[in-house]
From TrEMBL:
NCBIfam families: 3a01204. Belongs to the ABC transporter superfamily. ABCG family. Eye pigment precursor importer (TC 3.A.1.204) subfamily. This is Protein white. It is found in: Membrane. One of its GO terms (cellular component) is plasma membrane. The gene is 105620082. One of its GO terms (molecular function) is pigment binding. Residues 85-334 form the ABC transporter domain. The keyword Nucleotide-binding applies. The chain crosses the membrane at residues 435-454, 466-493, 505-530, 542-563, 570-592, 655-678. Keywords: ATP-binding, Membrane, Nucleotide-binding, Pigment, Transmembrane, Transmembrane helix, Transport. Its main location: membrane.
Amino acid sequence: MTATEETEPLISTTSSSSVNKIQRITYRTISFENNEGNTLHDGNSENSFDLKPISSLSTAADFNNESFGNNITYTWSNVNVYCSVKNDRIWDRLMFKSRKFIAQKHILKDAYGVAYPGELLVIMGASGAGKTTLLNALTFRLANGLSASGLMAVNGQRISPGVLTSRMAYVQQDDLFVGTLTVTEHLMFQAAVRMDRQIPRNQRIKRVNEVINELALSKCRNTVIGIPGRKKGLSGGEMKRLSFASEVLTDPPLMLCDEPTSGLDSFMAHQVVSILKALAARGKTIIVTLHQPSSELFALFDKILLMAEGRVAFMGTAAQACTFFKTLGAACPSNYNPADFFVQVLAVVPGREQICKYAIETTCDTFRRSEHGANIVLKAEAIHGEFEDTLRRFNQSKNSSRSVYKASWCEQFRAVLWRSWLSVIKEPILIKVRFLQTIMVSLLIGIIYFGQQIDQDGVMNINGALFIFLTNMTFQNVFAVINVFCVELPIFLREHKNGMYRTDVYFICKTLAETPIFLVIPMIFTTIVYPMIGLYPDVKHFFIATAIVALVGNVSTSFGYLISCISNRVSVALSVGPPVIIPFLLFGGFFLNTASVPSYFVWFSYLSWFRYGNEALLINQWSEIDSIACTRSNVTCPKSGRTILQTFNFKKEDFWMDIICLFALIIAFRFLAFFALLSKTFRSK
């Protein structure tokens, strides 16, 4: 096939003693007509492309309710991703105008490709070329604000979001773990929620040990994963291998990895890519994005997909890539890393944007028009059956009603509760700090209010001490849990998207795991303070006071969970917490009498756990005291405990209503916290 016009070198290079640098880029439009000249072609020659025939794609009959089979050929075509740009002009904001979409940025432009079983396909390109966006589009996990269109198929059958959850592994760039667990504990949890529910426990343990050995994690199997800046644990390479171990537990036939060598040295990077190469040799389909691999890593790749400006510039083997760019007049120098060369050729140089973009556009058009590029497009668009039709047939089968989760609700609950409890007891510093803080504050309050008498002076002191009970429990518990869901939110969202467990299971288990601590702390606090102050000397009243303080502590804990679930970051939660608590504090009946609350704020006082807790504690303290000693005759002196309650506008008959309201607030705040967390899972989809 001869070109319709003469071609000249599109990219000329000059070499120096140290490195070859691209000096000038000149592109001319090229069109092809036959099998001669500068075109690439299929055949038996040394540089021909070895593409698998369309017949190798599985038909729709290969699909069943469990999987697409052990070998997956993943194809995608006409994949476009757009980012909506909103009108954020200051004038429009001041005029309260609605933010309107004024443009859409085209990120991915008609991307296409084919990934075969047993091959390691690496997506390469300069920063901003669209590598991660393409990978997220292939896994249906685009970020908020992005919209996508295109055709993705497995074994020739069109798929939609959620279909590949159980047959796909997605190793993202950031390693997210619960840092207090060991390697074995983490993998045991993964096995409990990701492996099929019919697999017995001994088989899961065996599989965990196999994966630990396969990924060279035996030496660190009992090592704590670690928390950056707080607890030393695994190295960067061990972290990345643990990410792979988490994903290969279920032996998925399709794996996608986003920058798996990011932040690793050359040795560790080579180890990681070697692991991927070994997994591909076992028949897995592996797609990886890499920014700038070394020449040693480049030699391990089976196929490369070069991206530039959101378009496909080339797809094939490394030798085919060198041949392709050589035909364009951009031959890779013999002493140059091909990966660096290709990235530089397809990069946009600052100050020369128009020339570089024209060069990229010409390269992408040339490859797509070539016989090899057209063959890839043909295979990517070959669809043998619509997913909707196939799914309709299998929905009628007897197994179609199975949950999308591998583990049942009870198994999820048991596994998540086990991990949550481990994360609590493996933070001894936090537990010790909480108990030490409780003991110190209780001793301080006990010393300040030590030995109060039931007289005119003691009334005011005891009332103040009881309200401090509530204030201390509130702030101590709120700030103890205000970061619980904020810190683990990225981990939760990732694991939830992977179909590991339900939102309600996670929320219930996280709250249950910390419940024993929030029951023991009020008991310790009251046990120390109650006798030191000299409150009503009766065992029954002591236990009632302890129960009231525990209820208030759990209400404040529930409110802390609500703030944590609403906030996206710990800093936001810490900023929101105190200002929101202050109004509840003011309507507690100590600083403002309940009878003098303005009518437009009455509804707010009904939500104040300070009010119910304060009224219950005062009733428990004063309801059975018939006489109070008057130490001064020139001032008003309450004659009995009932008089004190009347002063605060509290009634003895409302005691059990206060207890019921405290229980109701616990339930209400936790329900609101759960729905706030649930809304985040919907927004992240």
